[in-house]
Amino acid sequence: MSAGSAARKVVLVHGGFVDGSGWQAVYSILTKDGYNVSVVQNPTLSLEGDTAATRRVIDAQEGPVILVGHSYGGAVITEAGNHPNVVALVYIAAFAPDKGESVNTLIANPPPGAPVPPILPPKDGFLLLDREKFAASFAGDLPAEQAAFMADSQVPWGVDALGGSITDPAWRTKPSWYLVATEDRMIPPPAQRAMSERAGSTVVEVASSHAVYVSQPAAVAVLIEQEHLFVRNRVAHRYRAFVTVPIMADEMTPDAEGLGGAHDMHEHARRREVALELLDIVTVDGFATETQYPHAGKSRVAWDSVDERAERLPQRVLVG
User: Fold this and answer.
1) Does residue 119 register a pLDDT over 90?
2) Which residues are designated catalytic?
3) Domain 3-113+159-231 has what CATH class?
4) What is the DSSP letter of 232?
């Protein structure tokens, strides 16, 4: 298999209260761009069952797979991602539990002032969101009619799924990317940042509700495609590279945290352009060394040498 064909397969895993149809816009973008995309219809009855459903879809693929999960789907890909065909993980406003953790443990002690998801008391072993509060909590940036439909078509979420504990988190051995939804009222953005930092993920921040995969499918697709370009020639390594030089010669050099420092609005605009215009990655001995962007003139962004200290310094790119 050629390097260009590697990891062109994407498997999408939805979260609680919804089904796989919410991925339609992301699916359309990726397939148009030449990716082979499969959507898991995980029943959300138990983590074990959802992991098995996801692995069955992965089994059906030939070659490397990028595994993507939204919300509770992040717990599913954390467990299912140890499948040998999975070369990378993408978390979309998602839970990224560690060994022994579950969604229940991660939501047990929300930070002071954090919004609390309007989950109704369990009935017959299932959970639903309060219909009247669904839009504000889950889909605040969607049209009212669309949010109302999602509220009325909720899929009951099994309480056993929330309690399912991770046995072997895939993000400990495989590279991961994470999209933080900064307007999320289901999973607090600080919690998303903490989980992504712990996992050593490359992070993109998008001004969006929890339903970012529906409201901003292009941003989600860009992240998935960026990951494909990064991992296609380095699937055996988990180390992270991070940006250490400016995008343009006359711009401020980012600090060691990558592109997430406190810069002016011009810097933010440039970072948005960069995130949406990623073209290619040059590799040397299997490691990413530099990235070229079509709207940055002839300049290139150099990647620092890949070493162990980069593992805890995830690249942060602002989008939107």
Assistant:
1) yes
2) 71
3) alpha beta
4) T
